[in-house]
Amino acid sequence: MTTWDLIAWYALLAIALLVPIAMSNANWLSNPASPNVFSYPLTYDQFDIVKVFVMRAFAIGGLLAWAFQYFFKGGTLRRTKLDWLIVGFLGWVLVTSFTSISIATALLGKYRRFEGFLSFLTYAVVYFLTVQLADRPSRIRAIARVLLISGAIVALYGVLQYVGLDPVSWGSKLPFEANRAFSTFGNPDLLGGFLIFPLTISMTMALSEKVTGWRIFYWTVFVVTVAAWIVAFVRGAWIGGAVGIIIVVIAAVLARPKLNAVDWSFAGITGVAAAGIVARSLANTNEVLNAGVRLASIFKFGEGSALTRFEIWDAAIGAIKARPILGFGADTFRLVFPKYKPLAYVKDAGYLSVADNVHDYPLQLMAGIGIIGFLLLYGIFGWALWLGAPNAFARGKGTERLVVAGFWAAAVGYITHLMTGLSVTGSTVFLWMALAIIVAPTATTHEHPVRKWGPVVGLALSLVLMAAWVGNVTFVVADNYFLRGQFPAAGEDAATLLKTAIALDPYNDMYRSALGQAYQNQMQDWLTQASQQQSAGTDPSTSIVMAKQSLQQAVDAYEQTIAIVPTEYDNYLFLSGIYNYAGTRLDPAYFNDAIKAADRGIAAEPFGPGVRMQKALAQASVGDAAAAAKTLDAAVNMDPNFVEIHVLYAQVLTEAGRLQDALAVYKTLESGETTTYASAIQSLEASIAAGAGTTTP
Fold this sequence. Notes:
Layout: H1 3-18, H2 48-73, E1 75-79, H3 83-98, H4 103-108, H5 117-133, H6 137-162, H7 188-207, H8 212-231, H9 235-255, H10 261-281, H11 291-296, H12 304-322, H13 333-340, H14 343-349, H15 361-392, H16 402-417, H17 425-439, E2 444-448, H18 454-486, H19 494-504, H20 509-535, H21 541-564, H22 569-585, H23 590-604, H24 609-621, H25 625-633, H26 643-655, H27 659-669, H28 678-689
Antiparallel strand pairs: 1-2
Helix pairs in contact: 1-2, 1-5, 1-6, 2-5, 2-18, 3-5, 3-15, 5-17, 6-7, 6-8, 7-8, 7-9, 7-16, 7-17, 8-10, 9-16, 12-13, 12-14, 12-15, 15-16, 15-17, 16-17, 18-19, 19-20, 20-21, 20-22, 21-22, 22-23, 22-24, 23-24, 24-25, 25-26, 26-27, 27-28
């Protein structure tokens, strides 16, 4: 290897080593008595954005080194039969990005998912570098070895979480069950998908290894990975991993490796460990952490997460029917879902639940980049597996090809997992790396001297890549400012920090929405100060002027956010809410603005009871109780557990004179020994007995 090729090679290995373990929370290195740089996370998104940063940094660096060698000094170009198909796919994703409902989201990806055009481009770069550099079995084994080292760290950390020995503090409450493994991926579903790679690759590396020490290491990685794979309790990953293991067994039968005492010993250890973990889980009363109940739930389609999953798929199918060719743009499903989600989802999952992913990769792709985009991508997957199969499953060729079979099995297992799982950059990049390794033995090699135009192209590409590298750094620095803006230290101004985050990453809608909330908090503080001044007999006019200024700044921030993501329902909820607050504290004229903002929100999400509640509040505040009741007629039963909207409904029904209806709502709210609404019920019953009020026509 030349020096530049060597740099590119180590960049590729760095992706395999660092992406899986990358996260920004290392508070186990902090000292509670003396806070240091590790006391707090470095980014607000502690997982995905860090993995994206690391992946892109080394992909850009590796491509830059390879390009310098190739265009300035001449070198080798390895070609595969997939190259033009991948170029065509990237071109299609780019086209659908500019026809998207949110160009910024389609190009950059949704915050905390990031699988927009730039991530697909990064996958293609990793594929390209892997094909160029993994040109012999020793290099394929080197990539596998490094990936297993990082996989071992990830799996071991997941096991530590399961047994209650997590060294990192994640706060008082996690969004999933306590002691469920999530490791460096931040979510059990995402961890389960990644573990399919070390699960299958460790088996083939062990079976093809001649050095006893390394063979023991690979089997140890397999045992730890199996344990973490189980305790993540991800059904889709269980299925995908099982498919991968079956494929490895088939490949091993064909290769006929010579098994020794080490292999049989670890087979026994794995069996005992897996059986012990499963047996322990069977005593757990939590259904998610009980392997038996969890496994049985795969076949229960009418309840739990399976039920809401079907409802999400129904929304995705509706979106696909609406735009079957171009889709709505890569990674835009969160923006699409509110428009197409069925009413049943609101009832089953609750009005606060929003699906930012379909949990089915084919449907996710078709909703995002259209049916053509889906066919192109899955054509890449299928063709790569077809081309690589003869090398992976060659009968009588010995064990040297087993590692390729391990990557083949990992790719199939992960693709299987994606039928019910989530594609995130920190895992899917290894699918593309696996595909490259699968087809690498079929690549053709072409030696090219330096061309006359080579340095010009190389210089232009280098400038683009260096700009991309700088952009990658600002991308993650912006998230640090976003974090600080959410939790400002003494002497820091939240709005100033958030404006810096926006300056560094101007197309992140989360940052702009948070700025609106920061200004909203300022408005509330000014109004509190004005109230205190009025009570003390001092002039509150300056505070009121400042409150109005903060109100306008908040409104501007929300409107700018809506301009980036016009179908994001939450921003209309925030906007109508702040107008209602201003109508109560500043000027009743703002209630009309609240109604207009709420109407825009209703158009974005037909089954959104929250924004309908804001509209009803505004209508009731301007004295139109009948209109408020009518607004809530269509919303109150969307989520039976949304107590606040039922209370408001009963109040506006009373004001509108619909006393029988109001009484029925209060009696529904009053259950068991609860007496919260007893006085309201008694008052209504007395009024009805006296002949007051009306009933619903």
